[in-house]
Amino acid sequence: MLADTFPGTDTAEGQAHRRATADRLEAEGMTGYARDNLAKMIASYNVEAMPAVAAHVTTMMTSAPPAGAAAALRSRAERPDYRDLLATVTVPALIVVGRDDEFTPVADAEEMHALIPGSTLAVIDGAGHLPNRRTQLRLSG
After folding, report:
1. What is the 3-state secondary structure (H, E, C) of 53-89?
2. What's the pTM value of the predicted model, to 2 decimals?
3. Nearest-CA neighbor of 97 among 70, 136, 64, 131?
4. 104, 24 contact by CB (below 8 A)
5. Domain ranges (residues) in the chain
6. Do residues 73 and 19 touch, judged by C-beta distance below 8 A?
7. What span, in angstroms and rounded, lies between the C-alpha atoms of 19 and 77?
8. Phi/psi of residue 122, each to 5°?
9. N or C terminus of the chain with fewer C-beta within 10 Å?
10. Structural contact between residues 7 and 100, judged by C-beta atoms closer than 8 angstroms
11. pLDDT, tens digit, 9 for 90 and up, residues 16-61
12. pLDDT digits (tens, 9 = 90+) for 93-125
């Protein structure tokens, strides 16, 4: 499963933003980042509509070690382009994306779907970057 991701490299601006965010996390911790990005994680309309989910995601984000989050951002800024590799995938692949994901939009998932032979694309309505939070709610209630 490939969930809310994309196989390409970041632009120079994107790389700089990831590095600056990593520096910010190490200097300030996770609270400000969580506050600034919660609406993107679960979709802005879900912050008020699903307060329990918003609280859970905020807790997850603020509980993450800043050094680990910073390392992940720096690593992501340096990743190579994997698009050519996707055509060689020979196992079943499910690509999942939240319809309102601002970090990795549906177009990125559609590109991966086109590149991976026989893949399945699932676009989750009512979801942002964490479509599993929306799906879990739908399945359980």
Report:
1. HHHHHHHHHHHCCHHHHHHHHHHHHCCCCCHHHHCCC
2. 0.85
3. 131
4. no
5. 2-140
6. yes
7. 7
8. -120, 115
9. C
10. no
11. 999 999 999 999 999 999 999 999 999 999 999 999 999 999 999 9
12. 999 999 999 999 999 999 999 999 999 999 999
- So what's the architecture of 2-140 in CATH? 3-Layer(aba) Sandwich (3.40)
Measured from the Cβ of residue 36, the count of other Cβ atoms closer than 10 Å reads 11
Entry field: residues in the chain: 141
Report the C-alpha gap between 140 and 137 in whole angstroms. Answer: 5
* Tokens encoding 98: 């939240």
Taking a C-beta distance cutoff of 8 angstroms, is the pair 46, 135 a contact?
no
Question: Which residues touch 98 (CB under 8 Å, ≥6 apart)?
Answer: 4, 43, 123, 124, 127, 128, 129, 130, 131, 134
Q: Position 56: which residue type? A: H
**Which amino acid belongs to residue 71?**
A
d(CA 15, CA 12): 5
Tokens of 108: 């990125």
Q: Which of 72, 61, 6, 69 is nearest to 31 (CA)?
A: 61
